[in-house]
Amino acid sequence: MNPMLLCLSLVSILNFAAGQLSPEEYRQQQLRDFNFQNIAPNDPSRGFQGGRFTGLIPGDGRNPAQMIDSRVEVIASSKRLEMALLKGGIVSCRSAGTPAPTSLTWVRVHPDGATEDIPLRTQSPRSNVRVEPVSQSEIRLDFARIREEDSGRYRCMGFLPQMEFKDEIEIITFQEINFGLTKATQYGRIYTDAKIYCDVDSIPVADVSWEFNGATVNNENLGDKFDIAQDGILVKNLTLEDEGEYLCRAVVLSRNKNERFPIHFIVTIPPTWLREPFLTEGVRGQDITMPCEAGGKPAPDYLWFKGTMGITPNDRYQVLAGGDLRIRGLTAADGGLYRCVARNMAGELSKSAELIVLEPPRIIELQNRTVDIGEDALLVCEATGNPTPTIKWRKINEYKFYNTGSPNPDDIEVYMMEGRDNALALRVRSAQRVHLSNYTCFAENKAGIDEKNAKIEVRFQPYFGPQAIRVFYTWMITENRGAPVNLTCFPEAFPSSASTRSTPTPSTSPWHRPSRTTCST
Questions:
Q1: Which tens digits make up the pLDDT trace of 432-458?
Q2: Pairing outcome for strands 115-117 and 288-290
Q3: Does an H or E element contain 123, and which?
Q4: Cα–Cα distance, 30 to 35 (Å, whole number)
Q5: d(C-alpha 501, C-alpha 509), whole Å
């Protein structure tokens, strides 16, 4: 035994023998003697084993010798404890023995050996690492959310008078295998190189391997088709045969971890035209459909523009499932240049086409004409419409049309009015009685036809036509009296003249009988 310890023990024994110390006082004195002797607890001769101290209190005639066993112990499955990142964690430290160390605390031990106090939870509630006392004999090290920088050595310490007890643990952080933002469905464009991404995150770093449609992709079957990287697998010169199920596998052998992430890979095809937009014509007020249809994988979406403005579907504008544009109740404002865009994730294509709104013809000017015989008569027919209507004339009850593109009779002239491409003139040269008639104007375009009549009236003096005088017959009833007979006179004139046998008019003369009955005008 250490000489100093022996001396102190003898003093205590003598005091106890002299009756100056009670048994309990004697025991406490012995503990103090032991604490004093073990100021340097790391000395193996002092009985320290880690955070534990053992020793013997000598006995006397009245009290047996007594062992003391004081310790501080970190409660953990291993002195190297793994904790998952971004998770919570807790480590408990307890004191025990006779007597049990008190004033438990935790400190962090830096690589250079320096220590750093860890605050109490009540003092720093938002600290990521804090100390939480449970009782006089237990204290916990609380990790709110494990971070990579929290890895390292932590020391639990307890005290007795002039004695220090300690036990340590090393925190090793790790990241559970996860696949982060890896998408379960991924795409690549046909005939290009595409990478199928697998975002593996783990600590320690995982080994990544791949399977395609159940077969392992390795160095033996990579060839020139695949190229494996840490963040994915590159598939070169995509074809439809490269579409299918890929499996990303992450392995951390040191932790016996093996995780898999299935990825469905789709080979896309850019749009190609099935029906391109083309020049479309529609009649004002009617509904029309402008074509636009494309194939592709996946099936394209469609956008329509008028000029530079996008078309928002509404009651009048509707984009059909196949891509066509339906417009209801055409107005003149709907005419113009339209553009259809077919797009999918592999690309897009567009084509422009014009919409022409047709206006049915409408004759807006046509008037009757009255001329004297021998004068020229002019009829003008003006019509609107889109496109500009074709105008032609025809004399009523005749089948021949008068227009600028066909030969006309010598007494008929047809021409466009100067400066008015929608007005066609019909001139009758030196109008005669035969020209007195109704004339029909026809205006026609793609949207329809309109027609109206106008009359040329030719003024001429009365005359007796071929049917004006007739021979009338009667018979004699007696020798001196014959049967009654009506005589009718048919003169022609414009304005018309009328004549009767008994009531002359200003335009007619009464009947008179020279050598034979005649009618004069």
A1: 888 889 999 999 999 999 999 999 998
A2: unpaired
A3: none
A4: 9
A5: 9
